Records
---
Amino acid sequence: MSPWDDLIEEIDDQKQPEKTGRKSNSGVLKIVLFFVLVGVIVVIALPWIRNQNPSSAAVTSTRLVMDAETGEIFDNFRVPKDQPFPWKNPKTGRNTLYMPEKCYWTPDGKAKNTPDYVLLNKFTGKAGPTLCPVCGKEVREHNPTPPDELLVEAFNEGR
């Protein structure tokens, strides 16, 4: 007799308790089936859920970097653990990658929502203050953004 036969017989007994005289175990059966179903769902869903959200370590170890020689931007560069910049450019093999500053100004003194990326002179070996090549404004570490009202105006005007 297989386990399925026992289950079928138990279900039949629950439908017709007057024939067998046995007590119904439908409550226990429902609980067991519930936990089996939950277990199957967890086993199927867990790998999918784990792959949906990148780990916080992966998110915090990626940066937007700029090549000091070519000006090329690498949007999601994975920063090597415990390695100070400059980081190695995967295309050239040279240590020329730095985190740039963002400049949100236009040449006519208006704000814009898409930044220009600027490497500070201290990274490129140049003397003096760093000037944005697009707008000419001075760029410094942790370069401040324009006031919110100017950014809203830029958004509304499509800049």
Note: The beta strands are 62-67, 73-78, 87-88, 95-98, 101-105, 111-118, 130-131, 138-139.
---
Amino acid sequence: LPYDVDATTDYQVFTTFALDHPKVVRAVEETRGEVLTYKGGLIYAMFHSNSGGCTANFGEITGLKIPYLTSVRENCNMATLKWSHWNKNLSKERIKNFFKGVLGLNISQVEDIEIKRGTCGRGLLITLKTDGESVTLPLSIYFRLEMRIPSDWFFVIGKSGSSFVLAGKGFGHGLGMSQWGAFCLANRGWDYKKILKFYYKGANIKRIYR
């Protein structure tokens, strides 16, 4: 294929403007051939929907330190932006089915949840406690996605019948650039170069072709 990304959820959905909209054409022309680099190499420019106000640290999640994927606090009013705050009921039965179907483990009813937190309070490990044992898992890799929890930055604020009540911030894995955060910063007058350098610390913008 003559392209590296498309306008689907595999990469980045794009439905806001027509492709020939003057703003789109100008943005493409002005940034044509530009890439983000770190120490001469292309970076892994991860991004997500909404950080909730503070991005995640790649090293805390994976154990592999990538200097340009560290945590940053967005000095921006995120409260009115989509997915800045959310609530969710998490069924105990769904957790039990996750263990059996995904991990091949039969556990009794989960009675309590504990979360080990990293930068900004984002969750790193989740411990699920039953009446006789406990199981600890990485929060971001399988559990959050399988349970369809919007982000790893959440708190258990109570119980409702056979469910845990969660309250959280943000949407997505939290690594790299927050799209809604970038939107907020752009509305404050930041240009794309300042925004990218804010999220990807130490990275540089380089033009490799025109």
Note: Residues 22-76+172-207 form one domain.
---
Amino acid sequence: EVYNYVELGEELVARGHRLTTHSDTEVVLHAYLEWGLAFPERLNGMFALAIWDAREKRLVLCRDHMGIKPLYVAKTAEGVVFGSELKALRAIPGVGVELDRLALDEFMTSGYVVHPRTVVKGVEKVAPGTMQIFQRGKEPVERRYWQLAFRPDHRRRVADWCEEIEATFTEAVRMQLRSDVPLGTLLSGGVDSTVIAATMAELRGGAEGIDSYCVGIDVPGARNEFVHARTVAEGLGLTHHELVLSSEQFGDHMLEAATIMGEPLVEPMVGQLLAVCRHARRRLTVMLSGEGADETWFGYPTYRLHNRIERLQKVVPRRVLQLVDRSVHALAARHLLPPKAAKHAATLIEPLERRYLGLSYFDLGLKASIYSPEMRHHLRDHDSREALRRLYEDGVGGPEV
């Protein structure tokens, strides 16, 4: 989906192009004809694209800026194969089905497989904000067309930043409301989904025709969000729907989601999202949702913890922090404190980037205890944190960003 296809189409027509449809796909093709390999820099949206240029005998694979849409690629004796699902490539002769043990080890560390690896050896992900170009008689080329950059302008007032953020956010929602089909939104009642729903209602001149959906699980101790979502929906006047899954339904949807995604996952919301989207599909074609708000605005408790640790490291002598670290580890080893306490205590004496690397699902010791001797031997020279370190260093800006 290319959200700015209307604006791009108008610019292309002004440059002499003739568009015969209202499709964003046609706009993308004409953008390629107009700007060549610089065309992705003009796109605003989520996409996984493949363009075959018969004139240049060139295949261009392109993934959106943030990597929302998946795009897999593999090289075989017959040439290059690609697809938006991993299982599609596995069905092609010449693409192996061997497990990539390095990718599995990275998954055990971070909870996901970091690009370019996949769990299938020989199959890679096209990196976010990146093109891969294959041309007959030439070596493949990887070209990055976008990179998140943090360039603070301390001359601006906070009020100016707030105004720009609101304007940018509103414009993003406005572009995604371009639809002549029924639409709705996922609603948890949290800040991010509430702001999206409220902005939708504001842009449409009211909540009429906007459906909101919330999903939860009917199991003891489940932290469902129905009350918060219901409060927001009533306040905005949305047509609200709730979906309650039994434990059996939740398990079934998790298995189905894992099958669809083709790679291991640790996020339990994936099964719920699959269920609620399928439920909403009976009435809707388009549904808006938010992603990454807690990461963008430091919403998770982890970020506040890191901020406090930064302050502690400035005022408490390092030898004192080391003593606390050793004491907590000793208590955890005697099962007097949970293992997580030892993991967090270790962050007291580490710089910020190492603290992020240390917040793993399974630490090195635990992985070594469950891996077979063959697996440990295979991984003897592999540091699964290196993939996370690469992502961390890829950011441009201050350490916390």
Note: The chain has three domains: 5-144, 158-295, 301-394.
